[in-house]
Amino acid sequence: MTVRSHRADHVVEEVGVWLAGEFVGRLPAAEIDRVVKVTRLDLESSIAVEELGEMLHRLSRARLQRIVQLSPLAKVRIPQAR
User: Fold this and answer.
1) 52-70 and 3-23 are packed helices; what angle lies between their axes, rounded to 10 degrees?
2) Are 52 and 43 in contact (CB under 8 A)?
3) CB within 8 A of 27, min separation 6: which ones?
4) What is the 8-class DSSP label of residue 45?
């Protein structure tokens, strides 16, 4: 493992933790982790390494927000008063 890939792995982990804190309760942790990892693969070789953290956070967050918006809303059943 190179220093460069180790640094990228650390950034991915940090972004994952940050976004998990924001989206916990709305999406499963596994889905958040999957989105962050897929987004890293999409960004790999497309941007400068020093920009990975910010771009990964922004793009992953936008993708997670889109997933939340497209997810069916939980139906809460409240008994009607007589």
Assistant:
1) 30
2) yes
3) 64, 67, 68, 71
4) T
